[in-house]
Design brief:
Elements (H helix, E strand, L loop, with lengths): L11 E3 L1 H11 L1 H21 L5 E10 L5 E6 L21 E6 L2 E14 L3 H67 L5 H36 L5 E3 L19 H5 L3 H22 L4 E14 L3 H6 L3 E12 L4 H32 L1
Parallel strand pairs: 1-6
Antiparallel strand pairs: 2-5, 3-4, 5-7, 7-8
Helix pairs in contact: 1-3, 2-3, 3-4, 3-6, 6-8
Length: about 375
């Protein structure tokens, strides 16, 4: 039994301030909102890396089960013409030969490409990432305000029910005193049993109302414990006075529009408009050319060659290439115009939402 019963004295007692402090630390919604901020920071850092060169490396190696270059035949008679240059070569004319070379090798590449222009997508992506981080901060503030309101509401509901229980107990004690007095008069034959039955019925009504209040307190305790992250049974500290009604009437000098424009809800709607406008730029950038420069280096090694082949050719080759690329997304133009118009419509929807938020907050 939460907040009730004989064990209440051993329970931890929380004031409203302690409940709010516990909620700010342990509430699941606030914890997730804090994680959203951390994720937005990581996304912002990730977007910034798009300004740096793109580096990739690859290695390919092979080992064949048999030689890749194979052949046989006889040396042609034309070799005799080289006798003055290579004495003795004419003796090879007509003799058979066999070629079996190359059964293993590897190739390694390293490329570095620096984007110079990507249709503004990199810059726009970084702006979107920064905007997302600001949105997460505003959402955390809104969730904190929502949690404070919910915790305070549940706290005061519990307090109000406990005050009502005190009133109910006082009424029950008075009714019990009346019951005892009427019971004596019934025994003395002064009044009828019917009056005693009416008082007994009223006592049952009070007990039924008490049970409903106690159940309501139990449910509100469970809800408050979940919102604040409180484990086990606990009680709340009743203030010395009942909660008073707060005057929500604005002062005559207050400017509703100016007050509404400073609310986090309106700032979020404004950020939504900015985000959709950046998305329009992103869609437009997908239809623009991209320019990049870079270098590619490679190293190739060959194995499984005969001694003669190793003497006549280089078995390890290293080379480098400087390059520039211009990519024009021609096919993107076909659907890109529709994507841009669709995104402009989303931006208009966001503007409508911003205006509606301002109007509703002004009313609020």
């Amino acid at each position: 039994m939460l907040g009730l019963g004989l064990g209440a004295q051993a329970q931890t007692t929380y004031t409203l301030e302690q409940c709010l402090d516990s909620a700010k630390t342990n509430n699941r919604k606030l914890q997730n909102a804090a994680l959203d901020i951390q994720m937005a920071k990581e996304q912002k850092a990730e977007a910034y890396t798009k300004y740096f060169p793109e580096i990739s490396a690859g290695v390919t190696a092979f080992h064949a089960f048999d030689k890749l270059i194979k052949g046989d035949g006889t040396y042609p008679a034309e070799l005799a013409a080289f006798e003055p240059l290579m004495p003795g070569i004419s003796q090879m004319v007509g003799q058979p030969f066999e070629v079996r070379e190359l059964n293993r090798g590897y190739g390694a590449t390293l490329s570095v490409m620096q984007p110079l222009y990507a249709g503004g997508q990199i810059t726009t992506g970084n702006k979107l990432a920064r905007l997302q981080s600001e949105v997460m901060q505003l959402q955390l503030q809104l969730k904190e305000k929502e949690v404070v309101e919910k915790v305070s509401e549940n706290y005061w509901q519990i307090a109000q029910l406990k005050y009502s229980l005190q009133t109910l107990d006082a009424a029950d004690r008075q009714l019990q005193a009346v019951y005892e007095e009427v019971e004596q008069r019934v025994k003395a034959g002064i009044i009828l049993d019917n009056d005693l039955l009416k008082i007994s019925l009223r006592q049952h009504e009070l007990r039924s109302n008490r049970l409903k209040m106690e159940n309501g307190i139990r449910v509100l305790h469970l809800l408050l414990a979940q919102q604040c992250g409180i484990k086990g049974e606990f009680n709340i500290s009743l203030p010395n006075h009942k909660p008073s009604t707060i005057n929500l009437q604005p002062s005559a000098e207050a400017d509703p529009i100016s007050a509404a424009s400073t609310r986090q809800e309106y700032e979020l709607a404004q950020k939504g408009v900015e985000a959709e406008q950046l998305q329009v730029k992103m869609e437009r950038g997908k239809c623009l050319p991209t320019v990049a420069v870079g270098v590619v280096g490679s190293n190739v090694g060959l194995g499984g060659l005969s001694e003669n082949m190793r003497r006549t050719m280089d078995t390890n080759i290293t080379n480098g290439i400087a390059m520039a690329t211009i990519s024009i997304p021609i096919s993107q133009w076909w659907g890109g115009s529709h994507a841009i118009r669709r995104q402009k419509m989303k931006a208009q929807q966001a503007e409508n939402d911003r205006q509606e938020a301002l109007e509703m907050l002004t009313v609020d």
